[in-house]
Structures are given as structure tokens and as C-alpha cells.
Amino acid sequence: MAQEQKKVSLNFSNIDITKNYIIEVKLFEANTWKVLSEINKPITFKINNSKNGFYIENGKIFDAKGYNFIMRGINHAHTWFPDKLDSTLKNISDTNANTVRIVLSNGQKWTKTSKDELKTIINKIKLNHLIGILEVHDTTGYGEDSSAASLQSAVNYWIEMKDILIGEEKYIFINIGNEPFGNGISDTTWINESKNAINQLRNAGFKHTLIIDAPNWGQDWQNIMLNNAKTVFDSDILKNTVFSVHMYEVYNNYDKINNYISTFVNNKIPLIIGEFAAEHKGMDVKEYDILERCQSLGVGYLGWSWDGNSPQYGNIDIVNNWNPNSLTNWGNTLINSTNGIKNTSWKASVY
After folding, report:
1. Is residue 13 scored above 50 in pLDDT?
2. pTM (global) more than 0.85
3. Which of 144, 213, 247, 265 could pair with 251 in a Cys bridge, judged by C-beta atoms 3.0 to 4.6 Å apart?
4. Which of 135, 168, 169, 275 is catalytic?
């Protein structure tokens, strides 16, 4: 016969939120002191105070209420499709995603995202109970793409937008620049420019969780970010920086994916997969392995992208013709597979 299960709430007083505590649990027979069972291993827990925004602890991301936040999200190319914002945010939220990454422009390559537009974007992200990652896309491939903006220009943009962003730390991550270096750069260049960008934003008063993209067009095939992320992380006075790799055709087998993600996890350095798809430029990506490794290792991911991609990059749209009821094969995998968004995502506790 099945035993009745009861949920028990425990209340404590005089708790010091900076300390760990141990609870020993024993189950007694009714009206006696006869022990029926007990938890032999004490439970250790830490009381977390509410924070002003997201923060990092032991390589994991926590939201403002102290809950481990694992991103399950989708990219939206807002800069090129500004008229699709309302419907896309709603449709992305309806997939059970908890995060949306938004393409913005600082005006170097595309129409600049203004303060008023940025404010509207943030408000609509919150209205749809999503967490937003905002990124300047103009920096893509700097050093190889002669038209790309420097990481410094992205920093300047964020500082210009400061009064819109301050106070949104519970809801917004700042991804300083998208894929801000192409191929052929040195470790020193990536380290120094990343550190400089972080320090400038901290000196300007930003307390947001910041995101730094990998070099090599985001794919880090030289392992520059993999080998040097800790140095950059330690340079942040708030220790509140996350690293983002974009997993495309470089990540075409399980070992590469597992080794990359596991290295960050084992070293307790926060990582997300900021972009990935099922193929890229006609070359295969092991999307199922990325999904499985992220789920098993507690790492966030964001699929690229909702819609509007050029056919030259392959079948990387998540939906057909902006229709949420018409998923592509890639979109169905990202959203509905075992380790996909619908089965693994939890909305942020701030909502």
C-alpha cells in the first residue's frame, strides 16, 4: 500500500545569511520517540539574500532571488527585422524559453538602436517574462571584416545607453560585442581587449552580468578563450562575467563539444552556448550532442535564430516565414527534442 506523502515547511529564525547550516532529519513514529528513518547524510544549505541582479557563484549563474539560472533561449535578429519584435518575443516565450538574445546595432554597420528603441525592447522582454541578452552585432569578425566595429566602439555604445540599462540588472545581460574578433588574433589581444571592455563598464557604474564572446568568429577553434577565460574573469572586480562560445561547424563531433564545455564546468568558469544550429554554411553541427551536454552539465544555450537568415548560411531558421506553428527541422529539434527548450527550461524566478 502506498504511503501518504506530506509536504512539510520549516521556518527558522536568527539565521545569518552569510553562513552555511546543517539540518539533520529524522522521522518518528506517531506519539513516540521511536525513530522510523533518518537522513544519514546531513543537508548543507546556504541562505541567499536577494541581489540587485544576476551573479556568478562557483561557475554558475544565479538570478536575483538566488536560484540557479540555466539559459534556454533563442536569438532574434531585431536590427534587421524591427517590425517583428512584438510577435517574435511572444512566440519565443510561448516555446517555454526563458531567455532571448537580441541583435542590436551601434550604428557602425546598420541603423543604430536608439535609447527609446532600447527602452521599448527591454520593457517588451519583461512583458513576455523573458530574460534579455543584449548584444552589439556590428563587432562581428573585427580584424578580418574591414567594415566591423571595434569592441571599444561597443563599450562606447553601452556607456551612451547607461541610463536606460541601470536598474535592469535583474532582467538584462550585456553581451558586449558579438563575435568581436575574426581569425588570426593573439591570445594577448583577446585577453587585453576583453579585460579593458569589462573594466570600462565597471568604472562607468555597470553592475550587470556581462558576457564576453569567443574570438575566431565566436567559435574559438584556437582555444584562446578556453585557455584564458579565467584570467579575464578574475580581472572583473565584481567577478560577474560569463563567456559565450558559438558552436557551428567547428563542433562536428561529441568529443570536441564535451571537452570544451567540460573544461569550463570543471574549472568553475561560467559558460553559455550563445549561438548554435543544426548546420552552418552547408556543414554539419552536432546539435543533439550540444543539447545533451548542456543539459547534463547545467550549461545554458541559445539557438540561432528565430527567422530571416540568408540561405547561404544553411537551414538555420527556427520557424518558416515567422510562423510559430511552422517549425523547421532545426526548430523542432531545438524546441521539442528530449533536451530541448520545452522539456528543460524554467522561467526566471524574478517573474
Report:
1. no
2. yes
3. 247
4. 275
